[in-house]
Sequence to fold (432 residues):
Amino acid sequence: MHLSSLKYAWTIAIILFIFRSLHTADIYVISVVLPQILEEFQITYVSGGAIFTATFAFSVLLYPIWGYLFDKYSRRLLISVSGILWGITTWLNTLPRNFTGFFVTRTLTGIDDTPPSGINSLISDYFPPKSRGKPLGLINATGAFGALIGTIIGVMLGYVYGWRYLFLITGGIGILMAIIVYFYVKDIPRGSSEPELSGLALKEGLYRIKFREMISLVKRPSLLFLNLQGFFGVFPWQCLQAWIFTYMLKERLFDETEAMIVMLVWLIVMVIGNLVGGAIGDLLFSKIYSGRAIVGAIDVFLSALTLYITLMWPIEDIMGFTILGAIASFILPMAGPNVSAAVTDVTEPEIRSSADSLLRIFEFAGSSASPLIAGYLADSLGLGLSILYVSVSTWIVCGILFIVLAYVIPKDIIATRNKIRRMAELIKGGVS
Fold:
């Protein structure tokens, strides 16, 4: 890749990183102001968990549609549309004055929670296979960076002016980001970064999904195990996103400022962990095709261990809790960019958004229940133990699936490279 094109590719990655980070911040701020919402509507932890579960479940229903659209039409345009929807639905959520109305409008905000599939697909066309882990690590870091922004504005605006004012601000940011993406991000022909297609004159539309290719996704062994690990692997993330801030306020007895400072430390470290995880995955992948799966297996087992130690640490030792949480935060996200990159490793360019959406369906179909399950357990066991039980148990299952993935993924990677190579030969022969 030439220096100028590499520079532009990273510019695109950074713009999409900002878009996704601010979108994640909009999703995350409800976790910060959840104590306000629990108090205003006089609801229990179970009802609070149901808010998250309903929104995630609604998102899951739309994942196949978004994935198909991203593989067939302009990814830039669809990302912009998702930004418009993000703004409108967030504003709508400020209107109700009873819990039923709030629950319904909050659920509707899930309609725009699906652009990662299009973003990951677009990134994969700007970066070649052996270099995708780093930019995908940057995109994956939007979870932590967005939560960091959401924590700051949630405390500084939400606890000063109220959650409705906060949602009006984050909704407006969605509209603004949609405009920026539309005018500054360029689409690129699918398959542009594949080595086998290098130097060929690709046209946008040459690589577009066909319905039968969507069906074939469920037959690939590596995608099956990537999806199964996703089913279990995101349980802890949804649980932590929904409840960790409330846990620090209610059980660690932090005030809002103390909890914000601890979260900022953890989230900054988490961003670094995403980037390091992507870089390690790229390094191992350049040596062995199962490298990304190996990183994932080691990471989730270490995640379970470090989270256990952190949550069981004595309540009176704030500094120890913060340091241990920072270590856990560095380790927790390292599997994520390797999963995203592995999806691109085993799929052709024209079906990557759909493959990524299929992964998200598995991830959120299971984990959407995580906040509700944790809320149910928290009413009897406390938030700390409920977070621990949900997270550690599912990460152990996830680690076992990563080990199996390491054995099956090389064959699918080789098959995918052969398919792309055959496409290159067809293009060279004048067949489209």
Summary: The two ends are 25 Å apart (CA to CA). Residues 383-428 form the longest helix (46 residues). Residues 201-207 have pLDDT under 50 and may be disordered.
